[in-house]
UniProtKB/TrEMBL annotation:
Belongs to the 2-oxoadipate dioxygenase/decarboxylase family. It comes from Alkalimonas delamerensis. This is 2-oxoadipate dioxygenase/decarboxylase. InterPro entries: HGLS. Its EC number is 1.13.11.93.
Length: 267
């Protein structure tokens, strides 16, 4: 595991860029000339709730660089459970980790996922690079489609594996924009497609957090029986409101998160 938080995030960022070419263009569009105002509010990772690779196994890598558990979230319809983590250094991004609750899924899905996960070497899970190691298995296109028919989340996870599925621009820190509406307009003017599930803006000032996101980039993945183009990763934008003077809300909002997950849906 990494012991340096900045090193961990630099690796997660480079790995995310490999499958999210639009991220660079987002920075050009939103950042000031020096780009020093692009601050990450949070990142998110996904997994399956099998003992070998469950949420806590991912969390251990963040705890090793000083993160602490801060909140938990339930997504009944999507069969997901999540926690968020914060670093004592408020400038470090928050971390949102979710897991698919396999016992609530079909036997076929459970069988497919168990077979994929069995191919991960035990020592891969504690290795420095685990959180940006991608997949440890090969999969054919029919298997991806079978997962997709039941759970978009399961299909995404089987295709892309362990990596940050999004980074999130802190709108509060931007110099050239004040509101999320302004950010969304600039993105649309720049040709980006936004996730409109639950509206372009999820949340409100009342729940202390407003969020929007792009639709995931479309990237060609080499399945075992040939390449296919599928959604990879996306970019999110978050504006936080004060809970007290000078103190921004640091949690997440389950109803909004439920819609953000859909940024990687098939289109
Ligand atoms: C995480 C979705 C939730 C947020 O900010 O509420 C989220 C995911 O898509 O894995 O990122
Ligand atoms: Ni997010």
């Amino acid at each position: 595991m990494h012991s340096n938080v900045n090193e961990l995030f630099e690796n997660l960022w480079q790995n995310y860029l490999e499958v999210t070419p639009s991220a660079k263009r987002v920075h050009q569009l939103l950042g000031s000339s020096q780009q020093a105002d692009i601050i990450n509010d949070h990142i998110a990772l996904r997994t399956f709730n099998l003992e070998k690779i469950g949420l806590e196994k991912l969390a251990a890598h963040f705890k090793a660089v000083g993160y602490q558990e801060c909140g938990e979230y339930h997504f009944e319809a999507k069969k997901l459970y999540a926690k968020h983590f914060e670093h004592p250094d408020r400038n470090q991004p928050k971390v949102f980790i979710s897991e698919l609750l396999l016992e609530q899924c079909s036997e076929n899905l459970q069988r497919i996922v168990t077979e994929l996960v069995a191919q991960i070497p035990d020592d891969a899970v504690t290795a420095d690079n685990f959180l940006y190691s991608g997949t440890h298995w090969s999969m054919d296109h029919a298997t991806y489609e079978a997962l997709l028919a039941e759970s978009e989340y399961a299909a995404w996870m089987a295709a892309w594996g362990f990596r940050a599925n999004h980074f999130t621009v802190s709108v509060n820190a931007l110099e050239n924009f004040e509101t999320l509406e302004q950010v969304n307009q600039a993105l649309k003017d720049g040709g980006f497609l936004l996730n409109t599930s639950g509206g372009e803006i999820k949340g409100s000032k009342e729940v202390l957090l407003e969020q929007s996101s792009t639709l995931a980039d479309l990237i060609t993945l080499p399945f075992s029986d040939g390449p296919a183009t599928i959604p990879s990763c996306f970019y999110e934008f978050a504006r936080r409101y004060e809970v007290a003077p000078g103190m921004l809300y640091t949690g997440f909002v389950a109803a909004s998160a439920d819609k953000i997950f859909e940024s990687t849906n098939a289109r």
